[in-house]
Amino acid sequence: MLILIYLVSVLCSVRGAIFYDSYYGTQITREDVKRHDKANTTFWCVNEIEPCDPHEGRRVDGSCNNLQHPTRGATHTPFARVLPPVFDKNFEPKKAASGNDLPLARYLRTRLVSVGRVPSPLFTNLAIHFIVFMSADIVSLHDTVNYIAWKPYCCLERGKTDYMCAPNKIPDDDPVHRFSGVRCVNMTRPETFQTIGCIKNDTAPERIVSSTPLLDLSVIYGNALSSLMQKGRSFQGGMVKTELDDKGRVWPPSTKTQANVCFLNQRPQETRCHDMPEDGGNTLAGINLMVVWFWRYHNFIAKQLAAVNPCWDDDKLFNVTRDINIAVSLQIYYYELLPIFMGYENMVKDGVLTSTGGFKDDYNPHVLPQVSLEYPFVLRWVHTVQEGPLKLYDKDGYYLKQIPIVNLTLRTGYFGVDDNMDYLTQGSFRQGSAQFDYIADPDVTEMGLGPHQYVSDLMTNDLAKNRYFGFPPYVKYREFCFGKPILSFDDLHGIIDPERIEILKEVYEKVEDIDLLAGIWVEKPIPGGFVPSTFYCLVVEQLRRNTISDRHWYERPDRPNAFNLAQLSEIRKVTIARLLCDVGDTVERIQPQAFLKAGYANQMCSCDEINKIDFHAWKDEKCEPENHWTKYLVY
After folding, report:
1. pLDDT band, very low/low/confident/very high, at 253 (cuts 50, 70, 90)
2. What is the DSSP letter of 379?
3. How far is CA 336 from the centre of its chain?
């Protein structure tokens, strides 16, 4: 009955919807829409948006975040760029300053990045899982699925006539493949507004993705209200749909069809594949773990709120729960995870964090809610700190086994077999990440996507995409970030170690030829942090953009349905350790700073000792006095 009422309301409301061009953000007519229908481009090129209400909360589809530009913040809208793109003729990747071709991406990767396994004594794998999860919230996997499922033939004869194919050549003297006979790594061009057919090909290619551009847990709640209503909400107590396995574990609902993205499930044992508003939860292993935890955490919050406010209906409970869940993810990302990578003092100085614990009132409607194309791209540097094997532990900390993380891509079924979910959860905060150095794991550089491709070098493809995205040279970003032009290789001293400058001289003709990602690979870390300095600059640029441009940012005091100071103070208490204590499998003991390895000043302790949110901060005085269910609240 609820679904029927919802569908009727949607049909009625569509009459008032307005059509917009997804790229330009301008209104278009129904005749324009019909032309897109005929060309089969409506899904990507047209945004259908209900009129904005300045008093409503954050929309699932991201629209109306900016009241003057309703499409900005919605899916299928363009990225911003920190610097204008640079291409060669016909928008092909740029050449060297001399006019020669730039060195092969695979050649550069093998020269600039060593291969090996050096575990970090400081950071846990959980830290890497979380940063990958937050990057998945603003991008989509369709570019990767394009070359592992739809166009796996780009290294074959057929690929030579397919414009979307952009394979990476392996040099004859490659240190790994000189005797293997493999001379190609499969890759496709990024999907753009031009390749989709939204705008003409006589303009610079601009990437198109299906995620909303701001950090709003779209990887959990999806980016379309219809999908959330049909696949996500249970319409009871503000909760999302779940199912229990035979051991009582809580999971997102599973798909009832074999047509899913869990291509690597080893049937018949591995059958689980999430059926959620967003397919992103079935992708990489770390994302999969985080999606299950945040899906469960939604219902954990909803139950606490329902006990405090028994008069709230399902809609009220769901919307406040979603708002808190989003805020929790942002609090953990901004105030717990990123400061240990980039330096707390650095982030306060650069205006990303507030050190007072109060509100952050810096909204600027003239800054559009977009993500810079550079931001998710430079996050690919994290491939250098990804450990290849995932280690599984029991709840007492005993090591059990390991599995290559690349073998869990698009393989949700593995998590549901035996006690693997329990063991992977325990391993996430016990195993170290890879060391923050100039070395990458061999699984990342030679397997990449596991059995999906015979050979796949993620970092070679990353560097190649650097060129297909049209990013200017590394030195231009250095000048943007730090103001000082770099005119020769000698100007890199102090920024890059001398031995790596020598390698750059050997592989690039001129300093202005250095690719953005190649420069970041060999940079020294920023003072007070562990990440390369240009990486820091471009990440911080986006982190500031998020807080300034997002009308619904959780720290803002005057947004619709804003938290009061007491509620924000409770959000400030949350940590990833607390979240895992609340919804993690068999988590009874954990170190308080779970992104850091357990040790001196971070000893494992009982979950009873980890700070909890007091949901009485959301007590609604309009509700009846608390009933007997309140005693079951977890404090």
Report:
1. very high
2. G
3. 17
